[in-house]
Design goal:
Elements: H1 3-17, H2 22-29, H3 33-40, H4 48-58
Helix pairs in contact: 2-3
């Protein structure tokens, strides 16, 4: 799993844990919803500046975006 995949998976996980839509998070982080969507779909690379904004609004440390996502066993 590359860093962009890890970032996207963690971004979705953290946003969903807050029960925020992409629109809500984008508005809070002052980025466009389409940009946020492309980040979650691994279509764009993210800048350090945006990582900082997202971490601030999701109330997590920036490093949380690069952790290996936990896979659940059924």
């Amino acid at each position: 799993m590359d860093l962009r995949e890890k970032f996207a998976a963690n971004l979705r996980r953290l946003r969903n844990a807050r029960r925020w839509s992409q629109d809500e998070l984008a508005l809070e982080a002052k980025i466009s919803r389409s940009y946020l969507s492309k980040l979650e779909k691994e279509e764009y690379y993210v800048s350090i500046k945006i990582i900082g904004r997202l971490a601030d609004k999701l109330d997590v440390e920036p490093a949380e975006f690069l952790k290996r996502p936990v896979t659940r066993v059924r």
